[in-house]
Design a protein that fits this description.
The structure holds 2 protein chains of 2 kinds. By secondary structure, chain A is α+β, with helices and mostly antiparallel strands. Helices cover 25% and strands 34% of the residues of chain A. Chain A has 5 domains: 179 residues, P-loop containing nucleotide triphosphate hydrolases (Rossmann fold, 3-Layer(aba) Sandwich), CATH 3.40.50.300; 85 residues, Elongation Factor Tu (Ef-tu), domain 3; 71 residues, Alpha-Beta Plaits; 107 residues, Alpha-Beta Plaits, CATH 3.30.70.240; 87 residues, 2-Layer Sandwich (Alpha-Beta Plaits), CATH 3.30.70.2570. Chain A is globular and about 85 Å long. By secondary structure, chain B is α/β, with parallel strands linked by helices. Helices cover 43% and strands 23% of the residues of chain B. A 9-stranded mixed β-sheet of chain B has the order 9-10-8-7-6-5-4-1-11, with helices on both faces. A 3-stranded antiparallel β-sheet of chain B has the order 12-13-14, with no helix packed on it. The chains are: A alpha+beta, B alpha/beta. Chains A and B meet through α12 of A and α8, α9, α11 and α16 of B. Chain B: Its cofactor is [4Fe-4S] cluster.
């Protein structure tokens, strides 16, 4: 089947699969690959496209992939199907949108028991925005609690899907797979590009490979590409010679040409992954295209935190590990930073909270570095009295009140989909989080969609956890950045034994400052062990103390018994305690356990 | 070489809820007999090796060694005398649980030249005793104590525990007053600690153990120190109090980091800078011995640094502290020079005191001794 034939654009279908987390996207992808013999049964691992451990554990796809399948349709013709897998999380909104831009159609997977979720709707909107043909598929119909009738009704209530025929499937049981293939061939249009026009290829992803360097995923829009051609990235205006092109089966397979409509990869001696920007257009330097493909944006991080190695000796390792991760993920931002409390580390920026957690977890798991991450923050815009405007994400850079004219914070447009009985508690929650109500509509009589404008800094702490716990896990959230709004924000500093601890400062809305400060000093009192002397813990704004707790002095710490058999054991115990104390961070005379810096994240 | 000799008997009637010692509920008498015959063999194995040493003290610990018949105890000690050179004035102690002593047994102990009894009293509150998993009452303590006195024992220790679950300050005072009213020669006063592998640890993890706070522990301990001083007890080690001339000679061997030989399952020895341990499990212990081998499980040759460390942390437990001259004679280095930084840091913190001869814990240091010890370990 592995033919390298020159294909007819009318026999190409480019599609992706969009779904809420856990609705079975990866399992559907697996079935499609098996059905077309792209992966022989014996080689298969569960969920073939998710090849990072983390992806498999969390059930989400982090990096998008593209696989070519060959399918013999019932009409007797052979089709090339390019499955472009997309990250399944709101943090990767831009990556998703570029992957979708490479497609003409999308399979929309909905869990037969869970029905339409907030993310389902945003996926639909995104697909419609990219002019994709949507094929709704209700998955997991074999489950005991499946309710396909209800889900069909929910789908019919969505205007964009009113006309669409719904496929019932169980990827696990292999039900509906051939219907899906026929729908892809018959309902998704072929790509519309022209092979004879000047080259335009959309970059929708890139990965770094230590043997081949940077590998770029492209969708051929117009023209032809071959090894030996000198190409240009249109937004960065840099030239490269193409050394290899190919397709994914799902392993990389070099071929001689890629033509308009096809999807594949490109290697062209890119020095640095930063030279490659997802969404950019590649053209031919000999016969350049005039117009760049639309939709390109430079991605900017939304969530920031500082990352420090617990053991300062690990700084170099952390630096190397971050560099390696950035090779594959140009959306990670990092720059060196020094903290009085935590030593040498990095200020990092991420696309969202999940992205941040994934990066932290990969650093710890794949590179074996124990980290301290400070509380996440967002980027604030501060206009100073002298007219200057600064952008800060790090509380330590917050100017004094005297200098500030106004502060703006990022807001998101959030939609929450919830069974109607939770509307009340969710409204209360959003109220607590300073949200502005925008709209409410019913998807059906029991499910409502609530639209809010919410400050991003309220979302990044614990909003999602609270939303889930207050709605017994039923409510779902989706958001995208809306813009900046003026807010009354203050920086709260924490002092331990009268010493300022830079890593514990945080920015918070004025109204919530006291409450938050109180919780944090109480939490620190719990976490910091008694010392040989009394230790005050204070929270202050502009040098004015707003909350205080005192850790009483240690009164008694003595091993009661020590006889013949105890001596070695007791010495070892003391040695262990001493080593434990060495791992603590010393602020002035006070030993503070690592968790104090983490604990601030978990304040309820 | 002078030596302390420790003999371990690893069986009890039942296991107390706080106990992490090497002891097991006794199942049958055969267990005892095969264990004791192994003990004899181990003693015999050391006889040759130690023919130039003098045993200054013997300590029969457990478990509950007084579960053994008077005759067996007598025979074991006689066997020691046949195999080792034992000082005529040796201090010979046996641990006893209330309820395991009667007149006849005490007479045999006397005959065996046992001259010190350490009575596991723990508390004079029956409901706390029950909570600890003890199988005796406060009255049993008084009875055993009186019988021992009647049998002529003039050196009796009582073990008392404090900071027990649900224990109040008043309750602890009552126990102490009761103990002191019996006029024991020595008191060991232990703060309850929750150890691995005990029933208490399980309850603790389940949140079912209502332990006194650190402040309450402090109050109990500091009150006891004062109370015992008023009653003419010398506070000569962190947890130990003695009437004049009644310090435990055997235990001082440990605190002065002097050599000792441990015989029996799980017993530790410290000889010529080696510290080693016998197999804990009595079955394994018996098996090794019956195969003609010393039942050694593990051991280490302590580096000079570790020996100095241990000497300091043990010595600082005592009222005597660390004497510069003795330290220099033993290790050929000047402690003030070697640990200059640590010593001054601790003096500044008010935990340590020095004079022309020695360093010792201050009163504050006594309560926070671990903070002192940690400075002297690596």
């Amino acid at each position: 089947m592995l033919k390298d034939y020159h294909c007819n654009i009318n026999h190409i279908r480019n599609f992706s699969i969009i779904a809420h987390i856990d609705h079975g996207k990866s399992t559907i992808a697996d079935r499609l690959l098996e059905y077309t013999g792209t992966i022989p049964e014996r080689e298969k691992k569960e969920q073939i496209l998710d090849d990072m451990d983390l992806e498999r554990e969390r059930g989400i796809t982090i990096k998008s992939k593209a696989v070519r399948l060959y399918y013999h349709s019932k009409d007797g013709k052979e089709y090339i199907l390019n499955l472009i897998d997309t990250p399944g999380h709101v943090d990767f909104y831009y990556e998703v949108s570029r992957s979708l831009a490479a497609c003409e159609g999308a399979l929309l997977i909905i869990d037969a028991s869970q029905g339409v979720q907030a993310q389902t709707l945003s996926n639909i909107h995104l697909a419609v925005k990219n002019n994709l043909k949507i094929i709704p598929i209700i998955n997991k119909i074999d489950l005991a609690n499946a309710n396909p009738e209800k889900v069909i009704q929910e789908l019919k209530n969505i205007p964009e899907l009113k006309e669409e025929k719904v496929i019932l499937a169980s990827a696990k049981e292999g039900i509906g797979t051939s219907d899906i293939f026929e729908a892809i061939v018959n309902r998704i249009p072929p790509p519309s590009g022209k092979p004879n026009l000047p080259l335009r290829a959309l970059i929708f992803d890139s990965v770094y490979n230590s043997y081949k360097g940077t590998i770029v995923y492209i969708k051929m829009v117009d023209g032809i590409i071959k090894p030996g051609m000198v190409i240009q990235t249109m937004s960065t205006k840099k030239n490269y010679e193409v050394t290899e092109i190919g397709i994914f089966r799902p392993k990389m397979q070099p071929i001689k040409t890629l033509t308009a409509g096809e999807v594949g990869y490109l290697i062209a001696g890119f020095k640095n992954i930063k030279d490659i920007r997802v969404g950019d257009t590649i053209t031919d330097t000999v016969n350049p295209a005039q117009k760049i493909l639309s939709g390109y944006k430079k991605v900017t991080p939304l969530v920031f935190c500082s990352i420090y190695p617990i053991d300062n000796k690990e700084y170099e390792n952390l630096k190397i590990a971050l560099e390696k991760l950035k090779l594959n993920d140009s959306s990670i931002f990092s720059e060196p930073e020094t903290s009085q409390a935590l030593g040498f580390g990095f200020r990092c920026g991420f696309l969202g909270l999940l992205h941040m957690e994934i990066v932290q977890e990969r650093l710890e798991r794949e590179y074996n570095i124990n980290l301290i991450a400070t509380a996440p923050s967002v980027m604030y815009k501060i206009t100073k009295k002298n007219g200057g405007i600064i952008e800060i994400s790090n509380p330590t850079a917050f100017p004094s009140k005297m200098e500030i004219e106004k502060i703006e914070e990022p807001y998101v447009k959030a939609s929450i989909i919830t069974p109607s009985q939770y509307i009340g508690v969710i409204m209360d929650l959003v109220q607590e989080k300073r949200g502005f109500f925008k709209n409410m509509e019913y998807i059906d009589e029991k499910i409502a969609k609530l639209d809010y404008d919410l400050p991003l800094n309220e979302i990044i702490l614990d909003f999602f956890d609270k939303l889930k716990s207050r709605s017994s896990g039923y409510a779902s959230l989706d958001y995208e950045l809306k813009g900046y709004q003026v807010a009354e924000l203050v920086k709260v500093d924490i002092l331990v034994n009268h010493e300022f601890v830079d890593a514990l400062s945080f920015i918070v809305h004025k109204v919530k400052a006291y409450q938050q400060a109180r919780k944090i000093v109480e939490k620190l009192k719990e976490i910091i062990p008694r010392q040989l002397y009394e230790v005050p813990i204070q929270a202050s704004i502009e040098q004015k103390v707003i909350a205080r707790e005192t850790i009483k002095a240690l009164k008694k710490d003595v091993l009661a018994k020590c006889y013949g058999g105890d001596i070695t054991r007791k010495r070892k115990l003391l040695e262990k305690q001493k080593a434990g104390k060495k791992r603590m961070k010393k602020i002035g005379r006070v030993e503070i356990p690592q968790e104090a810096f983490l604990g601030i994240l978990k304040i309820d | 070489m002078n030596l302390g000799l420790y003999l371990h008997f690893p069986f009890c009637k039942s296991k107390c809820h706080y106990c992490d010692f090497n002891s097991y509920p006794l199942k049958n008498d055969d267990q005892v007999l095969s264990y004791i015959s192994a003990l004899y063999k181990e003693i015999a194995m050391y006889a040759q090796k130690l023919n130039h040493s003098t045993i200054k003290t013997i300590y029969l610990g457990g478990g509950t060694p007084t579960m053994l018949s008077g005759d067996l105890i007598y025979n074991i000690l006689n066997f020691c005398k046949d195999n080792f050179k034992i000082d005529d004035n040796a201090e010979i102690t046996i641990e006893a649980n209330p309820g395991t002593l009667d007149k006849k047994k005490l007479e045999r102990l006397n005959k065996a030249k046992i001259n010190r009894i350490s009575l596991g009293a723990q508390s004079f509150n029956d409901s706390l005793l029950k909570k600890l998993g003890r199988i005796h009452t406060a009255q049993d303590i008084i009875d055993s104590y009186s019988k021992a006195r009647e049998a002529g024992f003039n050196n009796i220790n009582m073990d008392i525990m404090f900071a027990l679950p649900d224990q109040t300050f008043i309750d602890f005072k009552n126990t102490m007053k009761k103990a002191v009213s019996l006029k024991p020669d020595h008191l060991s006063l232990y703060n309850l600690t929750i150890e691995e592998g005990t029933k208490f640890l399980e309850s603790y993890k389940e949140g079912k153990l209502n332990l006194p706070t650190e402040d309450e522990e402090y109050d109990m301990y500091s009150w006891a120190i004062k109370f015992l001083a008023e009653n003419n007890f010398e506070h000569y080690e962190i947890s130990n109090f003695a009437r004049p001339f009644k310090r435990s000679i055997h235990n001082q061997i440990y605190w002065y980091n002097q050599p000792y030989l441990g015989i029996g399952a799980g017993a530790y020895s410290f000889i010529k800078g080696y510290r080693y341990m016998n197999y804990k499990d009595p079955v394994r212990y018996i098996k090794e011995i019956n195969n003609g081998k010393l039942p050694l499980d593990s051991g280490e040759k302590l580096s000079l640094r570790k020996r100095m460390s241990e000497t300091i942390i043990l010595g600082l437990r005592t009222k005597d502290g660390i004497n510069y001259r003795k330290f220099k004679v033993r290790f050929k280095v000047n402690i003030e020079k070697l640990f200059n930084q640590q010593i001054y840091k601790l003096i500044n913190l008010g935990l340590l005191r020095k004079d022309n001869y020695k360093i010792q814990l201050t009163k504050k240091g006594l309560f926070l001794a671990n903070n002192v010890f940690r400075e002297f370990v690596d």
